[in-house]
Amino acid sequence: QVQLAESGGDLVRPGGSLRLSCAASRRIFGSNVMGWYRQAPGKERELVAVITSGPRTNYADSVKGRFTISRDNVKNTMYLQMNSLTPEDTAVYYCNVRGRVGLAEYDYWGQGTQVTVSS
Known about the structure:
Structural class: mainly beta
Radius of gyration: 14 Å
Number of strands: 11
Order of helices and strands: EEEEEEEEEEE
Mean pLDDT: 95
Distance between the termini: 40 Å
Helix content: under 10%
């Protein structure tokens, strides 16, 4: 199966920027959707952004205009560019890939990377 590895999480000042990466261990076949989720302490995991093979994108209202999701199928990597960060963005960020090959469905998750926004 596919293994996903997030990187790029860090401690950053409010107003700063970070770029998260999610690298897949091998090529992903079939129709699929890649996305970033995040989970803050005491809160449910929420969808941040998704990107299809189209590619079409969609963003949570809280990050729209500040975050940009992208994917590079040649490098088997997905990115999340985060600008104008606020303390409310503090969370563990997870990458996810789900899709279908014929009748088989798959749903892969990374281990997460910590993003902390603090002055």
